[in-house]
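To close the section, here is one more complete example, presented without commentary so you can practise reading it yourself. The ligand is cobalt (II) ion.
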Amino acid sequence: MIGRLNHVAIAVRDIAAASQLYRDTLGAEVSAAVPQEEHGVTTVFVTLPNTKIEFLEPLGENSPIAKFLERNPDGGIHHICYEVDDIIAARDQLKAKGARVLGSGEPKTGAHGKPVLFLHPKDFTGTLVELEQA
Ligand code: CO
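Output:
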């Protein structure tokens, strides 16, 4: 069902510092920061030859990554995103196998403007999994 690794997301306190580190120290291609009000985060994408890294910095009062950064003050890997061909078919197949889909269970529009869903970390080896329709 899952296809390519679309991105690995890293939560950070300072997205400008993270961007500079990846651009200047690691020599990677780093996008501009984009505030995503509806998701409560600011995002930056680092484009690598085979996948992407997504930096997430809290935005606003009730950011969904605020608690994660309380537990991980230095930042850390927040989720991994796999591509699927058909997100509704993938969701229904996973639910039938007992996996928990977070939120309403209906896909939301993700940072790339494509439908995404998140799967409960306790069902997937302690890792928050995002599915994105390719
Ligand atoms: Co993501």
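Once you have examined the tokens, check your reading against these statements. The CA atoms of residues 95 and 120 lie 11 Å apart. The chain is about 20% helix and 35% strand.
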